[in-house]
Amino acid sequence: MAYQSLGVVYGDLSISPLYVVRSTFAEDIKHTESNEEVYGVLSLVFWSITLVPLLKYVLVVLKADDNGEGGTFALYSLLCRHATLSSLPNCQLADHHLSEYNNRSRRPPPHTTFASSLKAAFERHRLLQSLLLLLALIGTCMVIGDGILTPAISVFSAVSGLELSMSKEKHAYVEVPVACIILIALFALQHYGTHRVGFLFAPVIITWLFCISAIGIYNIFHWNPHIYKALSPYYAFQLIRKTQKGGWMALGGVLLCITGSEAMFADLGHFTQLSIKIAFTSVVYPSLILAYMGQAAYLSKHHNIEQDYHFGFYVSVPDKLRWPVLVIAILAAVVGSQAIITGTFSIIKQCSALSCFPRVKVIHTSSKIHGQIYIPEINWLLMLLCLAVTICFRDTKRLGNASGLAVITVMLVTTCLMSLVIVLCWHQNVLLALGFVLVFGTIEALFFSASLIKFLQGAWVPIALALVFLTLMYVWHYGTLKKYEYDVQNKVSVNWLLGLGPSLGIVRVRGVGLIHTELVSGIPVIFSHFVTNLPAFHQVLVFLCIKHVPVPHVKPEERFLVGRVGPKEFRIYRCIVRYGYRDVHQDDIEFERNLLGSITEFIRTESTGLNSSNEEPGKDDRMAVVGTCSTHSMLMSEDNAENIDMPGTSELKEIKTPQVIQQKKRVRFLVPESPKIDTGAMEELKEVMEAREGGVAYIIGQTHMRAKPGSSMLKKIVINIVYEFLRRNSRAPSFVTSVPHASSLEVGMMYKV
């Protein structure tokens, strides 16, 4: 796993030698005969890589995983669970009993600690909760910005090696087109997934690391064997003291040596902590240090700065190796860009699952490799923006300024969230959290200030992108909350349902009706609207709520919550299907099978007294946890069409052969014969299965939102224009998109919030 992580996690971090030195010496500091600037930059680079990736991420941050998952939203998810800060509106007490919700770090803190006071403050003040969500969204927006800027600067810097083999005039017309062609090819191939070529990623990065470390060793011994002395922090302080403002601004270039550090944490879900630590400490870290030492050794003996490319990476490469190294560098840049693009897809999927991003189409490109996804809309948007910044900037300096600000902002967000995790989740002394913020926050604040001062030299790009994405994400989240509040305020009471009687005052026809709702209790207003306007409904009704919980994964045996709505003779059920923010949704056939299986299992266990949901009639808040069909005795089975006459066992009785055939498969519905199941439950099971054979219809609400009369102008703009625009142009929920068109029925309603 350590070997594989080299290709997935460390692509971005490994290619940083291509542009760090050039960006650092762009304008802010000069290269003098004393070599103090070169030694100072090497010292800054060495200690930056040592303090941030090695000490902060490897030793501390990697331990803050959310059941094996990492990244900005993993930290936010941890905090939501430990302090009841979830931004999801339909949370339930039952969610707290999920096995991944109560992970190893969740234990009640002593009531006298600072953690208790901080937890109470967050739970009491909505403003603090909003600020925490805003912080997580800022980090997410900067990750998206990094997904635009990293491919641009990586590929552009790799292609810049062509400048040594042609004149400056020709190079100006070759570099940008070649970089754009590579970027277009990179994004165009995303829909194929990386599982077919992923096995090449690790060899490419290993070859690249071997090249830069070998060239570094050659330059050290050939040009300046004593360059190791420059690793002392003395030279870093000397550089700042001598150059003052220039040295401080040069930190914006030094910062680029730690780009990709966040990937060590964000990609934690694909690997283990140990594998990521082994790969970094044994391969990546020494290779990068040797590469930077080699560049510094070469520059310490070459002071001719007449050429623009004097500080470029390829100048220090021996002439005979430049073309092979150029090819390997381009391949490594593509691999590094692929990693950040995949990471961008992943974090957008997480945001969408937690109602913080408009719904998008998520395609799983591999059925075997976890997390390999493709989002078409985001892919083409990233490509257009990436090409735009490449064509507009045309140089490493401004691309580096933009990329650096995006990277360091994500790191600052991680530092802030980590300090809260240390107190609220790990229940450590507050001094430890303050020490963490003081050490790493100070370092990152210096880098941030050095990047921000270059606002007009490119740093404005990630800020502009973040503002746009942040606005869209916050408006979507706000609109989603308002829609849910309207549903809650206008839901119909169970007493209204009881007053209709078992037939609901209408004709009950054969079949199963699945009414999609966001509510976890009560009867949605869409149902009363439907019953009022239509004279018939299905004999079995299921109020279906598909929701996400703030954990990465929900185990199959804990996925379904099933209960009754009204008395047994009503044949109305509520089913809540819970997914984690990293879970893969099932297709419609498998989903239907598991859904009906969970209901039949609920009926069976209820009749045998194995769950506590059989309360008084009309009780609507008792739910039972029921697993998928794979976790309990199968009540439905699939046989090949040519083998449907197989004899059943003595414990199973076939009710009826359905007429539904899917891919030469025929579904048989089986009811277990058991003396523990009473006659009423057997009849109910038969009725549910016969209804399933009659077909399943999906009733889906299509809501249009408008701000209430008298609302502020800002609210009208947010709801009537921005949110409605996003709703109309976003995808339907993943559950809806997999529903056969002939089986769905949409009911439109106007919400005034």
TrEMBL record:
- Keywords in alphabetical order, please: Ion transport, Membrane, Potassium, Potassium transport, Transmembrane, Transmembrane helix, Transport
**One GO cellular component, as annotated:** plasma membrane
| TM ranges | 38-59, 131-159, 171-189, 201-221, 247-266, 278-298, 323-348, 369-391, 403-424, 431-453, 459-476
- Domain K+ potassium transporter integral membrane as annotated: residue spans: 2-497
By sequence similarity, the record places it as follows:
Belongs to the HAK/KUP transporter (TC 2.A.72.3) family.
Subcellular location, in the record's words?
Answer: Cell membrane; Membrane
- What name does the UniProt record give this protein? Potassium transporter
Topology with regard to the membrane? Multi-pass membrane protein
What does the function comment of this entry state? Potassium transporter.
Please name the Pfam families in this protein's record: K_trans, K_trans_C
Q: Where is the K+ potassium transporter C-terminal domain?
A: 511-752
GO MF, any single term: potassium ion transmembrane transporter activity
